[in-house]
Specification:
This protein is mostly helical. It contains 4 helices and no strands.
Length: 155
């Protein structure tokens, strides 16, 4: 007897998981890139940001710039791992998005509107990474065949 190996059909749930993971990866890449730019602005020129007097959280903008620069660089690296559907990238992506939320909350007095936008985007990233079940990602990294081996038509 010969055994035939058939590829499992991709279900709608797997397509949904692929879409959410890709969404989170792209958004995390954008958040990381924007955090890198924000960090560079804070390091290079402190006059860009408006400071609020008597705010509970008062920090040196150059130090905050380095924090945003580091978070942005790690977010970009993790987003590449998310595009490869690595499980470690999902866990680290949630942690990085959480740290981005905290960093942007603490920098509200310096750049309030942008901080709120970054908090909202990071919350969507956390949602997208947490809503996908682990089992749905198991077959996502495998490539689908372009042609069916038994016939000459596309799958």
């Amino acid at each position: 007897m010969t055994a035939t190996h058939t590829e499992p059909a991709h279900t709608a749930k797997q397509e949904w998981a692929t879409g959410l993971t890709a969404f989170a990866a792209v958004m995390l890449f954008l958040v990381g890139l924007l955090d890198i730019f924000r960090g560079i602005m804070a390091i290079a020129e402190d006059d860009i940001f408006l400071t609020t007097r008597n705010y509970v959280f008062a920090y040196d903008l150059t130090g905050w710039g380095w924090i945003h620069l580091a978070l942005g660089a790690v977010a970009v690296i993790v987003s590449i791992g998310l595009l490869r559907t690595a499980t470690w990238a999902r866990v680290v992506g949630v942690a990085i998005a959480g740290l981005v939320i905290i960093a942007n909350f603490l920098s509200l007095p310096y750049y309030p509107v942008w901080s709120v936008v970054m908090i909202a985007i990071s919350a969507f990233i956390i949602w997208a990474l947490c809503v996908v079940q682990r089992g749905n990602l198991s077959d996502l990294s495998e490539e689908r065949p372009l042609y069916d081996e038994r016939s000459s038509h596309r799958v």
